[in-house]
Amino acid sequence: MNVANASLHESFKHFPDIGEDNFCSFLGAPIIYRKEILGVLVVQQRVARQFDEGEESFLVTLAAQLAMVLAHARAQGLWPDKQGQSLQLKGAPASPGIAIARVWCDNSQPKLEDVAPSSCLNIASERDRLEAAIEKASAEFRQLRKRFDSDLQQDTLAIFELFSHLLHDPLLRKELDAKVDSRSTAEWAVRDTVETFARQFARMEDDYLKERASDIRELGQRLIYFLDEKHYDQLDLNEPVILAAREINAAMLASIPRDKLAGIVAQEGAVNSHAAILARALGIPSVMGVEFRPNMVMGQQAVLDAYSGQLLIKPNAHVVAEYEELQREEDTLTSQVEKTLAGKTRTSDGTAIEVHLNAGLSADSSIAINDGVDGVGLYRTEVPFLLQRSFPSEDEQTHHYRSILETYQGKPVVMRTLDIGGDKPLPYLAIEEDNPFLGWRGIRFTLDHPEIFLIQIRAMLRASVGLDNLDILLPMISGIGELREARALIDRAFDEVSELVEGQGKTLKRPRIGIMVEVPSIVYQLDRVKPLADFLSVGTNDLTQYLLAVDRNNARVADVYDSFHPAVLSALQTVQQMASRQGMPVCVCGELAGDPMGSVVLTGLGYRALSMNTRSVARIKFILRHLSLEDVNAVVSDIMQCDSPGDIRALLVSFFNRHTLSGFVRAGARTG
Fold first, then answer.
1. Among residues 105, 120, 587, 589, which one is catalytic?
2. What pTM does this model have?
3. Which residues in 137-154 are b (16+ Cβ under 10 Å) and which e?
């Protein structure tokens, strides 16, 4: 707003107490951060005049820069509410639930990033220190497994076995020893090695694989802790607390009795880290990625809303009372969900829905094996390739895949071929591109390297002999030509392995071949896929990204990335209809399948197979069992007439409320 004499403006209101009586000219620019008005930047002068365009431009530029500073300050808890009493901090929900307690900050852990480059004089001594730290960490994970033995299912306890395995991984040990042999201290050897591995995962587009970086860092953090050789006092608590720390690890969870741990808040960490997985298994509400100042939250009464990802510091009595009521509702809901996990999934009027698992590490294959999972809808095969310094051999891959297929005997396991390249570079094959999301990745990479593709397919086939539960999935298919070329290589590998196993008196079953529907171009060629593929698997994450031209990892456009966008739902409807006409099975393996509202929409669109992360299985099964297909179809029919994601969500929230399922959808919840 630029006016020569503010007092003459129709919206002017005089406030004598603020000392502006002698000012005439007024120039004001809004301070906006991601569409939210944080304030107004104002310049006034006594002389009545119109500010020129240069002055306007300067103020707008300054306001835009201030917006980022103020938004960051608010995220750190330096932004009081209107009453000046409570603080509202935001993060990413990792384990659902509500906690009401005082905050206790754990600042006792040494930080991996504080380790500076340093050299040693006595290599043998540093080797001994490193070996001792590894043994202490390994012993701790064994103790933690025993500590949680009565609280967790056997499958979740496999996390500690994975940590122990990684601690003794030959590649990791070789790297650590090499650093020490080059006269690095044990501390610097740990930091340098761990960060090298962690960076490889952090650069990846795949959310699941990206979050594995935090698990690797946790291993390094525990080694630094034991190398620190300090003694920390055990925490003595009289009442439950919300644990707040820079990073949460299993040792922290074990240090606090379960009845004294109300919730978890971390400044760093991912929603699929093993700490988050443990928190979900233990039923502890958790939020990751919260920017807070320890001195501002320590000892304060707080409410942790792990549905919307909010931490409310010093909330008023009315807010606390509302959350106490929600907490009681949540306890009742959780009890109901857990009782109905086992068994097949059918809507209330008898329509069968298959519920599968998305997985990617050996630990995952144990976490969710139960009667309620119909199989593995997506197994990511990239991990063995990413953790090594060279391509794993055919025998190494066969051993790895065999262990997964054996874990799920009698259930289908869909193994996706290598989805690397571009944004997921191998440590031994550097790939640099200006736009990795549209680059040399997925099937494009493997078809350009048929020797790598053939070895992987042969390994999968060899692993499946006698188990017969393998399906093969091809990622990033954009045209029939790619599919035809990939199918020819698979047929060649099948013939080679068949000849091999027949010589051993065994028989190789031909696996089903499927394609990922994630590149929009293939949607318009699905009528020509049937002769070359047996099933379809829809990746809603990338399909949404490519349809909306949005980098889903870019925070600046995060509000544009929305799987409930009408165009995305229309594309999903088209895929299902075309698959149905050709009699092809189709499954959705993106995040939308594990979202409560997303599962309803997909069922209404005609999908009868959904694959999701472990944390979503029980709730999705419960929801679908309590809804009739008739009601689901009716609401989806209304949804397909909407013009915006906001209208679609509003209809779905109302639908959940009408069917007494409001506890599964909370304000602020959103599918990523």
1. 589
2. 0.67
3. bbebbeebbebbeeebee
